[in-house]
Amino acid sequence: MEDDPIIDLASDAHFMGEALRQARRAYEAEEVPIGAVVVREGKVIARAWNQVETLKDATAHAEMLAITQAENALGDWRLMDCDLYVTKEPCPMCAGAIVHARLRRVIFGCGDAKSGAAGGWINLLQTTELNHRCEIVSGIRVEECAGLLRGFFQEQRLKKDLRA
Questions:
Q1: pLDDT tens, 31-57?
Q2: Residues that are catalytic
Q3: For the whole model, what pTM was predicted?
Q4: Which has fewest Cβ within 10 Å: 8, 49, 66, 74?
């Protein structure tokens, strides 16, 4: 037990704040407001926000972009000593990338019962059939994360109604 790393939940809230900053950038760009950061040894090594519409790329989720940045920063695709903070529970595509990159922990704000792959709909991050499992922490700054998404989709529906 003495060798177990000390997880400071206050730092989880801090780093989720960094992910929320990225999510706000997505909101401003009229992208689904999801942000992600990768942390290694207490330092942010990658940060990204959803850019599906901006890049016209279905794979340009915040998690995918942050993972790629982190791999480039480290010069390795293995992120075993890194943690991913993301404002919304990862989808199956992102969960697959997370497992393959071997991230240590995934910390997210709000869950996604319909398509979440960290326990919401399915749990790909901890399935025994895959070669790696991640620790999952959920509910960090959940109200801020969920509120940003709610506000975005309410605004999008209003815009759609005004065009109709």
A1: 999 999 999 999 999 999 999 999 999
A2: 63
A3: 0.92
A4: 8
